[in-house]
Amino acid sequence: MKIKFFIVVMLITAVISIVGGWDRINITDYTITTLVGIDKIDDEIKILLEYEPGHKEIPGSSTDNSDNISKSSNGEDSSSKNSNNYANINSDDILVSSGNSLIEALYSYQRRSSDDMYLGAVRSVIFSDNYAKSGIEEYINRIKGEIEYRKTVFVFTTNTKIQNMFDKQTLKTQNIGFDIEHMYKKLINSKLAIKSTVSQVLEDITIKDAGFLIGNFDVIDNKVEKNGYTIFKNAKKIGILSENESKGVNLLLINNCFSRYMIQHKSTDIFISSYTDKFKIKTDYTNGVVTFDINLNLDSDINYMSQMINLDDNDIKEIQKKISDNIEQDIIAAIQTSQTKYSCDYLNFYKYFRAKYGSVFKQINWEEKYISAKFNVNVNSKIVSTKLINYE
Q1: Could you please report the per-residue DSSP string of 54-111?
Q2: CA dist., res. 376 & res. 355, Å (int)
Q3: CATH 3.30.300.210 location in the chain
Q4: At a CB cut-off of 8 Å and minimum separation 6, what does 380 contact?
Q5: What is the pLDDT of residue 34?
Q6: pLDDT value at position 50?
């Protein structure tokens, strides 16, 4: 009886194995996407897709001889407009699809390819200046709805013409998506950049009275380079912060933030690196006025000096004071820019207020309260290392 049962089980297993493998799909049957770019020119949406190096030539790719056109629902050619803007893209691994809407642009690829896209390998999504200004929420929601899309995918903007971000020959790279991801991960791990992922943006979009930041990459001297942050309000771009303007932002938003400063002391340039040691923000709400007390302690190192000078204890105290003043000025400047120039809390102060005054936060207009909020900033820097500089 046991032998018969064993034979039946073996037969069933064999049948399931055969049937289960009949319609299997190999990973090689997919087009593996590594970078997605979204652009908007007038009323036309363009989607740029970069594929894994060495993948077979894509129908409709920039070097494919077939017509790289997409037609709108009424049959009109919707990719011929401004097509010269994409003439510099010349790679088997790049596809440009177009449409009068995001959906049409997505479908234009499907109408020209026998392969399905595999989105699980996407390293980054990058939005052009025009598309970011028109609003990124639709595409972010698309990512949310796609099972394959990882929610940890990085999202960025660019002020560079987006086709230049996909110009592999000029950039001299095999895969732009991997390069950008690696670059930004290194910055995050070095405490030099905030996280800029789909999951973070999905969370930020839900707060209507506040804004958020995502990283910005541009092509500078034929190299892709992180170049500040883009400010979003209601999921639309309202401005950009340069790398220099981002110093105070990083200090407020990055745990154990790393920063570099150059100060002058006794006609000598002294180069400093600082790490956040303790960071506390307290908030108060009295008589309808929001107040924040920011206390920041930093450990600093003297890396080197433009010329060697002896430093005594009084010199060290003066240098510590100058470091503290510089950092305090950067933090105050970051806050004032958000309040007066953009009237938008993209620095996440609402999180501290909401945590303490949850019921009040639901009732007030946070944008109005934030603009008039008062801030008290106190920074203390302590030199913990002089990098073996001898001082008396």
Answers
A1: TPPPPTTBTT-SS----B-TTS-BSSSTTGGGGTT---TTEEEEEESSHHHHHHHHHH
A2: 19
A3: 244-385
A4: 296, 297, 298, 320, 324
A5: 87
A6: 87
Of 183, 206, 208, 156, the closest CA to residue 38 belongs to: 156
pLDDT along the chain (392 residues), means of 10: 57 54 51 88 89 55 40 37 52 79 79 68 92 94 82 93 88 88 94 92 90 95 94 96 95 93 91 91 96 96 88 90 95 97 96 95 95 96 72 48
**Closest by CA position to 168, among listed 53, 55, 46, 82:** 53
Q: What single letter denotes the amino acid at residue 217?
A: F
β-strand partners of 127: 38, 157
Q: Architecture of domain 244-385 in CATH?
A: 2-Layer Sandwich (3.30)
Distance (Å, rounded) from C-alpha 17 to C-alpha 31?
A: 27
Phi, psi of 224 (to 5 degrees): -80, 130
Q: 104 is written with which tokens?
A: 């049409």
